[in-house]
């Protein structure tokens, strides 16, 4: 039996989703165990030589950017291992030696593959050839690249209106590919550019644009290292952004205080064991959180409003000499303070404590920490952004910083911690359905096109349009749309309602199986792959969470000579669609990506002299007016205090409020394995974490199997339901009335119309559910 056959049998082994072993949760993150897991997974997927080649180039100046999270590298010197456990897993998944060839699709029908879990699909390996699924067929078949482009072009040209096409983008796409993609879409005549930001940090952008005039964070890594106080809300850095922990460790060494605000006691916020330091190997590591605020799901806005009231009261008590409020900053740079002050003074602190689930004593301790700090940073992630009142919550948090003059000050500011590696860069490059007129005018002037001005569809609106037959062609560049989006049954029906679905992908995932009447899979290079074009080896650029733009140089041999870069795919498709006479020189961009960057420099604000500046040792930082000069490009020309009615999430009798979250063995919808080491779960994913008091009150026990049924208003006075079947109950330290479970398994519970006000982001962190005993 060959080694390939033995390997296939291992990865194809059936998974018993109910053979879950639970143990006590961990109280620290990283350490030697993280190193060993990283090495084991990497060697299994890539082999020893390829592992060494990848690890020595990962996040290095002359290497490639991690395809995982968007946490930035520190400026100056870099360590040999400038990555984390989950970054190593992400690279191993992308640079795997396992391949999905045309022979794989000949052996496996779509019907058969649909029965496999997401983990199994991911483990099959890299896609090697373009494939087509013809109408009525149950097997993908090989297709030439030229025929694939022609099929897409014909479908697009046959649409009655360009707005009948949807062009989705994931956050892994490079700046160059993203810029060309939006140029293709706008040349075609639509702004239908939904992306993964719509589902994660859109609320951050909406809130910050209103408050400070730019939808990006205002801090650098150096600001965090030198902050006095760092408040981290709705974020789990130990799993989602582990390299952040080393920055927090440095901040702690400089005397910083860290406040963790989260429904779950996450290991990384409790203690960090840096495996590159002695105390992380043989010692106890470093305690991270000085204050753990175990917030009830949806209670963050109430917490921030209560803190605002306590700050105002402290200002009153201090008298004329008070420094609690930075009156100079407020008077010179802010608008709306009087309305905010009037509303906040009327906040009832008993209501705040009940809504947030915190004691009055803890609320006062946190307020005093804010008062004592001269340099405060607020960090947050999807625990805040995926709430119905997310935009108002982030506005309320920003209010606290404005009161204290913490914007445009070293060591202070807002820090929305983005997820996917270049999700922020995609938006900078024009991947947004509502790009401003200044960007569109510059694009038109550079290329002689006429960009449409009507706003396009975001992700939720695109699903509705496909469901209703108003959108007929779906093209996704990266990502796993069907698994990443809410209301799974509705989303899958919407995709199947299309005449054509196209997935530009590195690996097999469920979106290849949820298809239109015809479907294409176009295999593309990953971040780790070497990209050779006519002028030689090509470089791409990305933007991290803190607006640093830098180069990424893939160096590993691709899985097949048939795999093409995203830049090449976009440009060759555009050439097939528009023909030789189009005013955009599409094919010339493929030969040399410097030409793409020259175009970016001419169009994108802050990107002048792009080719030179991006080649600096650490790249360059995009401008941020509030940070750089305390300029606020808002409707008032000043930083705006947010004044919104106080909201929180009630727990109906006999129900729980569920948040969806990642396991430590996944990144977004990519499942690396079936363990969640930090939460004490091994061998499965269909688990629901419930407070022991709720377990008893609901007549359940540890190990009970239940269906999760979400409930939400139908808009006509009734209640609609969604069901996700067969989860094991795990007693856990969640707040009473709250629960947690992994996505994408719980995405079916999130209704399409359950979205955040203003941002239209699905509310995946506050789903009212009931638990029913499972008899299956």
Plain-language structure description:
The protein has 776 residues and is α/β, with parallel strands linked by helices. The chain folds into 4 domains: 3-94, no CATH class; 99-197 and 424-618, Rossmann fold, CATH 3.40.50; 202-416, Dimethylsulfoxide Reductase, domain 2 (3-Layer(aba) Sandwich); 656-773, Barwin-like endoglucanases (Beta Barrel). Helices cover 36% and strands 17% of the residues. The protein contains 33 helices and 34 strands. The protein has a 6-stranded mixed β-sheet with strand order 6-5-18-17-16-7, with helices on both faces. A hairpin with a 7-residue loop joins strand 5 (131-133) and strand 6 (141-142). Residues 1-9 have low confidence and may be disordered.
Short description:
This protein folds into four domains: 92 residues, no CATH class; 294 residues, 3-Layer(aba) Sandwich (Rossmann fold); 215 residues, 3-Layer(aba) Sandwich (Dimethylsulfoxide Reductase, domain 2); 118 residues, Beta Barrel (Barwin-like endoglucanases). It has 33 helices and 34 strands.
- Terminal Cα separation, in Å? 38 Å
Q: Could you say what the CATH topology of the largest domain is called?
A: Rossmann fold
Shape: globular
DSSP helix count?
33
Q: How many discrete structural domains?
A: 4
Structural class: alpha/beta
> How are strands sequenced across the largest beta sheet?
6-5-18-17-16-7
């Amino acid at each position: 039996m060959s080694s390939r056959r033995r390997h296939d049998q291992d990865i194809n082994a059936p998974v018993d989703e109910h053979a879950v072993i639970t143990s006590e949760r961990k109280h620290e993150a990283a350490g030697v165990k993280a190193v060993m897991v990283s090495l084991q997974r990497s060697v299994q997927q890539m082999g020893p030589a390829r592992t060494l080649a990848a690890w020595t180039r990962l996040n290095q100046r002359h290497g490639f950017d991690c395809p995982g999270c968007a946490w930035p590298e520190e400026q100056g010197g870099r360590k040999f291992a400038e990555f984390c456990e989950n970054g190593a897993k992400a690279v191993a998944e992308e640079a795997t030696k396992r391949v999905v060839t045309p022979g794989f699709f000949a052996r496996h029908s779509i019907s058969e593959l649909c029965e496999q879990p997401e983990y199994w699909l991911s483990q099959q390996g890299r896609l090697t050839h373009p494939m087509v699924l013809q109408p009525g067929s149950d097997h993908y078949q090989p297709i030439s690249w030229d025929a694939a482009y022609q099929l897409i072009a014909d479908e697009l040209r046959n649409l009655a209106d360009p707005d009948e096409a949807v062009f989705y983008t994931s956050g892994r796409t490079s700046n160059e590919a993203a810029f060309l993609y939006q140029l293709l879409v706008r040349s075609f005549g639509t702004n239908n550019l939904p992306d993964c930001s719509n589902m994660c940090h859109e609320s951050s952008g909406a809130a910050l644009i209103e408050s400070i005039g730019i939808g990006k964070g205002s801090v650098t890594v150096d600001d965090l290292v030198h902050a006095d106080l760092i408040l981290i809300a709705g974020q789990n850095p130990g799993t989602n952004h582990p390299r952040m922990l080393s920055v927090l460790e440095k901040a702690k060494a400089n005397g910083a205080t860290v406040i963790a605000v989260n429904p779950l006691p996450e290991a990384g916020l409790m203690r960090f064991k840096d495996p590159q330091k002695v105390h992380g190997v043989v010692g106890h590591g470093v305690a991270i959180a000085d204050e753990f605020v175990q917030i009830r799901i949806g209670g963050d806005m109430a917490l921030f409003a209560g803190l605002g009231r306590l700050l105002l009261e402290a200002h009153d008590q201090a008298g004329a000499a008070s420094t609690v409020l930075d009156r100079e900053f407020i008077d010179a740079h802010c608008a709306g303070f009087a309305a905010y002050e009037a509303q906040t003074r009327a906040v009832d602190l008993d209501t705040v404590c009940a809504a947030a689930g915190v004691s009055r004593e803890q609320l006062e301790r946190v307020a005093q920490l804010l008062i004592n700090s001269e340099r405060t940073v607020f960090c947050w992630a999807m625990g805040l952004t995926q709430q119905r009142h997310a935009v108002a919550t982030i506005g309320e948090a920003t209010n606290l910083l404005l009161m204290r003059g913490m914007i445009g000050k070293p060591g202070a500011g807002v820090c929305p911690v983005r997820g996917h590696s270049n999700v922020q860069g995609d938006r900078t490059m024009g991947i947004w359905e509502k790009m401003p007129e200044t960007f569109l005018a510059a694009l038109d002037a550079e290329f002689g096109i006429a960009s449409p001005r009507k706003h396009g569809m975001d992700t939720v609106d695109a699903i509705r349009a496909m469901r209703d037959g108003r959108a007929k062609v779906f093209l996704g560049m990266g990502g796993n749309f069907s698994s990443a989006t809410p209301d799974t049954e509705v989303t899958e029906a919407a995709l199947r309602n299309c005449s054509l679905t196209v997935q530009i992908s590195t690996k097999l995932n469920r979106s290849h199986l949820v298809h239109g009447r015809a479907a294409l899979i176009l295999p593309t290079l990953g971040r780790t792959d070497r990209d050779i074009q006519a002028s030689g080896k090509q470089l791409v650029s990305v933007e991290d969470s803190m607006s640093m733009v830098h180069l990424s140089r893939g160096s590993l041999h691709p899985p097949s000579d048939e795999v093409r870069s995203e830049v090449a795919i976009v440009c060759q498709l555009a050439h097939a669609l528009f023909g030789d006479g189009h005013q955009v020189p599409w094919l010339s961009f493929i030969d040399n990506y410097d030409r793409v960057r020259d175009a970016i420099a001419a169009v994108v604000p802050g990107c002048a002299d792009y080719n030179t500046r991006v080649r600096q040792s650490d790249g360059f930082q995009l401008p941020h007016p509030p940070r750089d000069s305390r300029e606020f490009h808002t409707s008032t020309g000043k930083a705006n205090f947010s004044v919104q009615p106080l909201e929180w999430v009630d727990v109906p009798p006999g129900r729980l409020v569920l948040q969806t979250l990642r396991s430590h063995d996944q990144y977004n919808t990519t499942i690396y394995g079936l363990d969640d080491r930090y939460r004490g779960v091994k061998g499965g994913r269909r688990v629901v974490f419930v407070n022991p008091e709720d377990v008893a009150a609901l007549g359940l026990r540890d190990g009970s199997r239940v269906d999760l049924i979400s409930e939400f208003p139908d808009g006509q006075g009734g209640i609609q339901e969604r069901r996700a079947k067969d989860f094991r109950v795990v007693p856990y330290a969640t707040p009473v009335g709250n629960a947690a479970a992994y996505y994408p398994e719980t995405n079916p519970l999130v209704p399409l119309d359950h979205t955040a006000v203003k941002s239209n982001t699905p509310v995946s962190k506050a789903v009212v559910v009931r638990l029913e005993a499972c008899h299956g």
